Amino acid sequence: MDGSQNRTLEFPVSAQPAPLATPYRTHTCGQLRVDDDGADARLAGWVHRRRDYGKLVFIDLRDRYGITQVVVDAADAPEAHETATRVRSEFVIAVEGVVARRQPGTENAKLETGAVELQARSVRILNEAKTPPFYINDPDATIDESLRLRYRYLDIRREAMLRRLVMRSRLVHAIREVHHANGFVEVETPNLIKSTPEGARDFIVPSRLQPGTVYALPQSPQQLKQLLMVGGMDRYFQIARCFRDEDMRGDRQPEFTQLDLEMSFVDEATVMGFIEKMVIEVSRATVPERPIRSIPFPVFEYDDAMERYGSDKPDIRFGMELFDLAPVLAGPDGHPASGFRVFDETLAAGGRVKGICAPGMGGASRREIDELTEFAKRFGARGLVHLSVQAGGELHGPIAKFLSPETQAAARGAAGAGEGDLILVVADTAGTTNDVLGRLRVELGGRLGLANPDELSYCWIHHFPMYQWDAEHHRWDATHNPFSGVVPEDEPLLTTTSGDLGVRDEGDPAGRAKAMQYDIALNGWELGGGSVRIWDPQLLARSFNLQGYTVEQMRERFGAILEAFEYGAPPHGGIALGIDRWAALFSNQATIREVMAFPKTQSGSDLMLEAPSTPDDEQYQELGLRFVGVPEKR
RNA sequence: GGACCCGUGGUGUAGCGGCCCAACAUGCCAGCCUGUCACGCUGGAGAUCGCCGGUUCGAAUCCGGUCGGGUCCGCCA
Fold first, then answer.
1. How does A606-617 read in b/e, with b if 16+ C-beta sit within 10 Å?
2. ipTM score of complex
3. Does domain A318-450 have CATH number 3.30.1360.30?
4. Which pTM value belongs to this model?
5. Options 3.30.70.100, 3.30.1490.100, 2.130.10.10, 2.40.50.140; which CATH number does A3-127 get?
6. Is the CB of A608 under 7 A from strand B?
7. Which chain B positions come under 7 Å from a protein C-beta?
8. Residue nearest the C1' of B34 (CA based)
């Protein structure tokens, strides 16, 4: 997908129309063709490479659109030649001359402009350049990422980075087109707002006009878009910047971009239907070369996804589903009687014994097995049982001797395993078992190369549980979004065992309620999530109460939206998709940093601007601020 | 908050207790070259091995700390 894998064309970044001619140039460096033979032209750009033959100098001139070879001949243009010998890599120059078809046999098929060259009449140095700290003209060079970030403006000159940003621009453009074509209105919402609890820590901005108070940066425009629905906007979208003060990962930055949208008078099917159509159109417009694996997108019940893939964002480009060993291990009376105590005891205690089958890994080395076991333990498993399938169907492994031939055969059947395969089994609580096997599945899928890297495999996961029990605070916590609606048939469950909403218990019926919550996953990443909201103020209050908010806290934190809902809120629902993740997946990058112009490091630094920094005295004064308890640094 | 990995001329790597005041490639500088396109040839400059401290007769190499970057857990949707 990326430049490093395809070097037939250098800088085929953009085939867009040329910009208007300017005093510096008549054409771009990606534009000239045989048809221009004999024409006068001016080009301007950066010196990609210079080849000096003494009396003859070649300069590869580069801009965003491509590379054109400039020839400077001392015999034809002595002054230009003299300048050309002084030119160095990354100098900014302007060249005037005549376009000429190259001599037969000297054409360069690697350049789109490779059939012609610009024979210079004059060469002007617009700006000199220091020797760059890394290679700009070598697409295969590996460069330390912190160096790239420190000199991001140079990194952006590199083909791979440039094409990713151009692709991202196409992505956002396609999003806007599809939404406008479907009657959506793009509305901007403020970035200086009030804290809206969404689980993550807020970034805080102190107010100068009201010392002692702060704004919060939005974690998402969630409440604002719902208020737009109350405002009758009907169909809203925004390319919204969001801020969350949490620790970073390859797919998480403190500020990131979401496609945020909301629709009125809809149910789950309407919203998912539109989003699916939109996602398909946007994918085809942005990366037409990448096939979408299945349309319509597969839809999984949350419970089902966890059961089959051990994940709420399954990568379904390959199978290797988890399987249940409980039926296999049951004795004639239905009680666990495999003979292997760990399995039997786990099942008797209400846990799960499940496995996955790694095709062709039956010959895995001791070292590989240890690695996988270590992997499983890191995610909470107490151990990992491995069984390799021998030629006669017999299972080999440390615990194989506990299993009768009948049990072995049944296990092989459940696993769908054949000769040479490796069966991996985890016995633990349902949560741990699924989680560990789900992670193993992704890990092994990667090792075995089971996923087609070209495919885009979207799927839906919906009907998440409404709440998770928060033992520490003794309350129900919204699994996703505190505004998510409950599926109509579960509405009566939004109550407590005691019937008194003030008294909450882990066994409350509310724990069984399913949300009208849908996530969309792409190739094993969570691309986005949304829900049909609770629009009935009474029901919303009930839900908030289950989540442990008192009436006062609700007023304090959700006052605007609760009040708004008393003035007639339409049924509404929406979704938010991570643009950075989408772009990273479209360009097969492992981190969203690769599709952001100026990302931050894991510790939240901008290595180029050297942010964050200490405020100056005046800022402290104006804001009435003082840092206390900050360790001396720097 | 925690675990792990990385840090050597401009860049990417090698060296992993004395053979190293550090090697290779590329870049850079100078000279030569009229058809190259990762041009070629000749010559040259350039790092005390992130930083601080320790162990040792001796440290780029071992240990501790620290700073920076990354991956992951927690956190986060």
1. bbeeeeeeeeee
2. 0.93
3. yes
4. 0.94
5. 2.40.50.140
6. no
7. 1, 10-13, 26-29, 32-40, 67-77
8. A56
